[in-house]
Design a protein that fits this description.
Layout: H1 7-17, E1 29-31, E2 38-43, E3 49-54, E4 62-63, E5 65-66, E6 72-77, E7 85-91, E8 97-100, E9 116-117, H2 129-137, E10 146-150, H3 152-155, H4 166-180, E11 184-187, E12 191-193, E13 203-209, H5 216-228, E14 232-237, E15 241-242, H6 263-266, E16 267-268, E17 273-275, H7 281-297, E18 302-305, H8 308-312, H9 333-349, E19 354-357, E20 379-381, H10 383-393, H11 405-408, H12 410-413, E21 419-423, H13 435-438, H14 443-459, E22 463-467, H15 492-510, E23 524-531, E24 536-542, E25 549-555, E26 561-568, E27 571-579, E28 595-598, E29 608-614, E30 618-628
Parallel strand pairs: 10-11, 10-22, 11-14, 14-18, 18-19, 19-20, 20-21, 21-22
Antiparallel strand pairs: 1-2, 2-6, 3-4, 3-7, 5-6, 7-8, 7-9, 12-13, 15-17, 16-17, 23-24, 24-25, 25-30, 26-29, 27-28, 27-30
Length: about 625
């Protein structure tokens, strides 16, 4: 029996086809009701026929009928039960018949299967109203943002190798993140995918949390518990490309449907995937609906948009040189317009969430306003800072004075965008070594370097992100097929490193100068940032209140500097916030200099100064206690 066409379905079909159907999951896909009538709708504009098969009809095709010329096929079935599996059977114009996933499915069976699951409308009793109210009241740009990046499949596993469930992760991951002082969790993609080794970036379920860890209800509860613990939840989202499998989105109706018609643009050689046709109206409806669905249905605090560069350039992929647009350059005009529209629509509906770009080129104004020609993201990962900083710290200290520009170059462009400073999963895999094992020297010096590098990230303008395991200096690089090396924490240096991270994170949250003016030039004072010969550096992070600041001083070589003078704006008393070489952190200093008196001795452009002993391979953070303004 075919459902009678209503005005509502006509409107929904029209909006989807003109690229303005931003709740298309409420129209397309499977919609079960308590009345015993279940509606199936699929989009296959060039198909010869479409049917639905599933547990409810013994996997024998029940034909759907086309809605005029909209490309939508629909049918209404009885005796469909929640929990039944189903797929669409699509007959192409050439007569080929293939079973296809439901692109709008909101839950799928566990791998290796990829059939969608009939679900009831999502109901959730949320308990995060205080969190959401706080989010609306104060945007994250003026709050501390310290992100713990997590791959749920390998943070912890059971002894037999089985995954932790969403509920088990809530019980263990949330208290752990809270204890260590992070403000947000960023989940590598949890949208449904088949191949573990893809880490979730080769997706087919754009509306479904992966069933590896439990139901969509359990995922809701995980997010809810994060918010109750004052932890924000960000999720990686992939609108650039999709899984190559023939039973997924590829040539959905027998012709290019979600991907570009030009195979040279559709085929993504670098990642073995298919590129979305971002200029197609229906694809825009599909992807923007997906983004809004995750933000609305699951109360996410933001999306980290993966592979933005792949959407900005026609020749970004391997072997795709020479492609130009109508103006003769390599910009992907459809991709740029899509990203601008995505961010515009998302921020209209959710002005308090974060849209974060993983963008690896120097494309301008990624976080600029769309009305001024920008892409409209809230933040961009600062990949240049990340690579330069890692290159510097992985270098033998003997040669660092010749490459000091690796650190100082970022001062030139630090305010060009709103940046997040990432030490992400990509930097600790595929033979790149873990963060700790990248560091030069013996094991002691590796940890000294790591403490100094993480402190440098904490005080540098911008929000910050660290990948799991880095907080205690895991030796092995990340492996997606097994849990982190928690046994490391039996080693004193690893245990002390984890404690250091906890102290550093707490210090970051409690000191406004380190985050209040992240995106304003007034947030930093350069005092001693370019001394390659000594390989030391000092600068000041400034809060809005003039007498509220933190002095950050670094020694990037294993040579102690005595009577090291630091310029400051005011005379008076100062106190130690952090010495990375303290014994409590795994260092060697048992007696710390904790109090400093600044006198009227002008130094490096500042009217006052004091001296310290700067430990070898270290960082000192110092703040004013009682100073005389104007002195």
């Amino acid at each position: 029996m075919v459902e009678k066409l209503s005005l509502d379905t006509t409107d929904a079909s029209y909006l989807f086809n003109v690229g303005a159907g931003f709740q298309s999951q409420d129209y397309l896909g499977c919609h079960w009701t308590t009345t015993g009538q279940t509606v199936f709708r699929g989009w296959a504009p060039n198909a010869k026929a479409v049917a639905v098969v599933g547990d409810f009809n013994d996997w024998q095709a029940t034909a759907l009928k086309p809605l005029d010329t909209t490309g939508v096929w629909q049918g209404q079935l009885t005796e469909v039960h929640v929990g039944d599996l189903y797929k669409f059977q699509v007959t192409a114009i050439d007569g080929q018949v293939r079973l296809k996933v439901d692109p709008f499915g909101q839950q799928f069976e566990r791998k290796p299967g990829d059939a969608a699951v009939v679900v009831a409308p999502l109901t959730m009793s949320w308990h995060d109203s205080l969190w959401l109210a706080r989010r609306k009241r104060t945007h994250a740009s003026s709050r501390p943002v310290n992100i713990y990046e997590v791959h749920l499949g390998s943070w912890r596993r059971h002894p037999n190798g089985q995954y932790y469930s969403y509920a088990e992760l809530a019980d263990e991951l949330i208290p752990y993140v809270t204890k260590l002082g992070y403000t947000h969790i960023e989940l590598m993609p949890v949208m449904e995918h088949l191949l573990d080794a893809s880490w979730g970036y080769q997706q087919f379920g754009y509306f479904a949390p992966t069933s590896r860890f439990g139901s969509r209800q359990s995922f809701c509860e995980f997010v809810d518990q994060c918010h109750q613990a004052n932890i924000g939840v960000l999720v990686d989202w992939v609108p650039s490309h999709f899984i190559r499998n023939y039973d997924a989105l590829y040539q959905y109706d027998g012709t290019p449907t979600f991907e570009y018609a030009d195979v040279n643009r559709a085929d993504n050689h670098r990642w073995g995937a298919w590129n979305f046709d971002l200029g197609k109206a229906q694809v825009q409806s599909f992807l923007i609906s997906s983004a809004l669905f995750w933000l609305s249905a699951y109360h996410l605090d933001g999306l980290r948009v993966d592979a933005v560069s792949n959407m900005l350039y026609l020749d970004y992929d391997e072997g795709r040189t020479g492609q130009v647009n109508q103006y003769g350059d390599n910009r992907n005009l459809e991709g740029i317009a899509f990203l601008q529209r995505l961010n515009t629509v998302v921020h209209q509906q959710h002005p308090d969430i974060l849209m974060i770009a993983e963008e690896s080129s120097a494309y301008p104004h990624v976080t600029g306003a769309v009305t001024a020609g920008g892409l409209g993201f809230d933040y961009k990962w600062n990949m240049g800072w990340m690579h330069d900083t890692l290159d510097f710290f992985t270098m033998d200290p003997l040669y660092r004075h010749d490459h000091f520009n690796l650190l100082t170059f970022a001062f030139v462009y630090m305010f060009d965008e709103h940046f997040i400073l990432p030490f992400s999963h990509d930097e600790v895999v595929h033979g790149k070594k873990s963060l700790m094992n990248k560091m030069p020297g013996d094991r002691y010096n590796q940890f000294a370097n790591l403490r100094t590098m993480l402190t440098y990230m904490t005080v540098f303008p911008g929000k910050q992100l660290n990948f799991m395991g880095s907080e205690w200096g895991q030796y092995l690089e990340w492996r997606d097929w097994s849990a982190l090396e928690w046994v490391d924490l039996k080693d004193r240096l690893n245990d002390r490193m984890q404690y250091f991270t906890t102290v550093l994170n707490e210090l970051y949250q409690q000191n406004r100068p380190l985050w209040e003016q992240d995106h304003a030039k007034a947030g930093i004072r350069y005092t001693y940032t370019d001394d390659p010969e000594s390989s030391t550096m000092s600068f000041i992070r400034q809060a809005k209140r003039k007498a509220n600041f933190v002095v950050a001083t670094f020694n990037f070589v294993p040579v102690e500097r005595q009577q090291y003078r630091i310029g400051v704006p005011y005379c008076g008393q100062y106190e130690l916030l952090l010495n990375t070489e303290a014994k409590a952190f795994g260092g060697t200093w048992t007696k710390l200099e904790t109090d400093f008196t600044a006198v009227a001795h002008a130094y490096h452009g500042q009217p006052a100064s004091f001296t310290v002993t700067l430990p070898a391979m270290s960082a000192l953070l110092i703040r004013p206690v009682s100073v005389r303004r104007g002195s």
